[in-house]
Amino acid sequence: MVKRNSLIFLTAFGLLLTGCGKSGLEITKDDILEVARDDANATKSECENVSIKEQKGSYIVSFNTNGGSYEYKIGKDGIIKERSFKRGAKEETAETEKVEEPVKEETTKKEEEKSSTSFDEGQQQAINSVLANSGLEQSDVSNITCSLDSNTNQYTVTFVLNDVTTTATVDAATFTVISTILG
Description:
Blueprint: H1 2-18, H2 29-40, E1 48-55, E2 58-65, E3 68-75, E4 80-87, E5 95-98, H3 109-112, H4 121-134, E6 142-149, E7 154-161, E8 164-171, E9 177-182
Antiparallel strand pairs: 1-2, 2-3, 3-4, 4-5, 6-7, 7-8, 8-9
């Protein structure tokens, strides 16, 4: 299952990086659900009350896990446009995040250099979780940073791959990837 998730994520990521997502290519509802589950770091068996609705060139995907409720707006090209997460069934507040299309930036020599920063044990575990969730190795990326927000008990991991900056949020207690934003 992990290999399949990684393959679908890498395919979607590859489409994003190559610009094929703009060529009119549409993926199936199953693929869209897989993108959402992968972003939520949830397996098929962990998801309940799964709903996929088509809406104006996008799909609205929602499901519940033991950790909370997820809702995604995903384009027919497989790119996440919005995500919303609500912890636990009783909590009334939700984190909603608009996801912007990645913007290609000029590469500087500094961005191409591999990071040689050392991290503490928790930071390294958070980095490892994000990279594993993305199907990458630390040597595949550059400019890795990791910081802990003690108020939310979450790590923020940032890295550059093929001129695209990726920022991920990781739960500091479980090292579960909560969200991933490209761009």
